[in-house]
Amino acid sequence: MSVSLSGLVVTAAFLMVALASKEIGAWFSRVRLPLITGFLFTGVLAGPHVFDLVSADAVSRLRLIDEVSLAVIAFAAGAELYVEELRGRLRSIRWTTIGLMSVTFAAGTVAVMLLGEWIPFVREMPTASRLAVALLAGVILVARSPSSAIAVINELRARGPFTQTAMGVTVIMDVAVIVLFGVCSSVADALVTGIGVEVRFAILLVVELSAAVGLGYALAGILRFILSRHRGIATKATLILLAGYGAFLLSAQVRRLSHDRLGVEVFVEPLLVCMLASFIVTNRTGYRQEFVTVLERIGPAIYILFFTLTGASLDLVVLRAVWPAALALVLVRLVALAVGSFAGSLAAGESLRFSRLSWMAYVTQAGVGLGLAKEVAVEFGDWGGQLATLLIAMIMVNQVVGPPLFKWVLHLIGEAHPRGEGRDFYGAYKAIICGLEGQSRALARQLAAHDWKVTIATRLDDPPPEEGFDIHTVSAWTADELDRLGAHDAEAVVAMLSDEESLDVCQQCYERFGTANLIVRLNDHANVPAFKEIGAHIVDLSTAVVGLLEHCVRAPSATALLLGTDGAQDVVEVEVGNADLDGLALRDLRMPSDTLVLSVRRGESLLISHGYTQINVGDWVTVVGSVESLEQVRSRFEA
User: Fold this and answer.
1) What are the structural domains of the chain?
2) Structure pTM?
């Protein structure tokens, strides 16, 4: 078999493993384990030490995937550091970063030196090589995970000074750790090769860093040119990947040529080049948003490939020998994070409580740490792979432990605003309408005509009563007042107040009761993002009538159904509460012949239904049909 054909077979086989890794990672996510852990686990199973679907030779031949992935990871790290977003908490971010980096790096380096006798591949090393290992390990202990932090913040809708500081520190540390890695890898190379840390080495280090800065600016110019072209996302993504891979090819060529012609290796860290280029594009050009969009599009696929390949490259024999040392490094890192963040926060003038708890926001590690570990494996071939295995084992533990700690501290600080648990029973449909006026009364009558239990809440004293629904006066738009009205088990809450009051009502219902259906009548279009953040349905009066008229022109029958002007037909959305229907396909439900299921809403996903769509308890099913038949459907689904 030719070399090229053999390479294609290896690549095709690995892509099939990566497809399986995607599904396994999704399963890990569903059982509340990190997605990345699922990818690594799949790689380990497929690797040479278990099923050998990806052999040791295949891992080395797939270095292209590693290098392209590492370029994307470095691009993502640089793109996260947008200076304008960090100005508000810059003092706290600066001091906390200094405290964390200095203490964690020093503690990690010393710990590896002291643990050397218990790490098999370090035990026989001379002191200089031990120091090289310790420096590289110390750097990687510093790395954080912006993507994991962002995921937790978005999940909990966290906001406030603690969240802003934690995010800023996380982003800056991952950028700074790449710079520190560039320096330490050069120092480690000098220690291992016997150059010695002397004047000649200092000159070489300055040359390497200067070259990295120069190439970073050059690569930024290339990225800017790519982003400025009128091309599709796919084309730009491909060119950006090629540009990142080019940085790794150029670094390897410089290293080889300098060794052959100068007798000394000049190593320009490609991760540093890519990170600097990304930082420049993000902060010094007008293409930040487009660059971030491209990275978000290609990121998921790249991470599946990279982390699966990382798992396949793990040496389980080495892992079995070094896992006690990996756990020891986890503990050392936790103590260092606590000391460093406490000292940094106090230096920044933060409160004692803020300073004591802040370390829990910085435990998680992922992309950059794993990327640096893979770079160590490649740059230091004799023992680099074994050190990478030790560090990856530590990172996997931190990846599992970190997110729950971050969630916990956000709750303790009081900056978490997650959705409430929601109601847990099925009965009469109930709606709370906030605001008393002609439109709210008309809406209440319409809902009551469809057998909804409706309550209108108002701040007015002694409102006139009306038959068919209740009107209650509230003293303020607080969660307790809304709870007294029955918002804790309401299907829908409609806010028809000023935008500020409506947002307050929606946030209270979202966080306290987990209300599934929040509807707001908007007054100012500028407030749309605030309502969208909590998933509220927005009725914008400035566009609603035009949109309704358009649908009357384009789809008059469907509009008549939605408006209720066709008295014989209606559209309802009903929650599945009947456990007997759980898992049944729509085609097996034997529904009335004059009804049709339009969609099934499951969590955040909307499924366009067909006969083989299975329904689950808790789904919301939208059905169109005659009024009589819809009553049969409702009673059967809710039973």
Assistant:
1) 3-413 (1.20.1530.20), 430-545 (3.40.50.720), 569-638 (3.30.70.1450)
2) 0.69
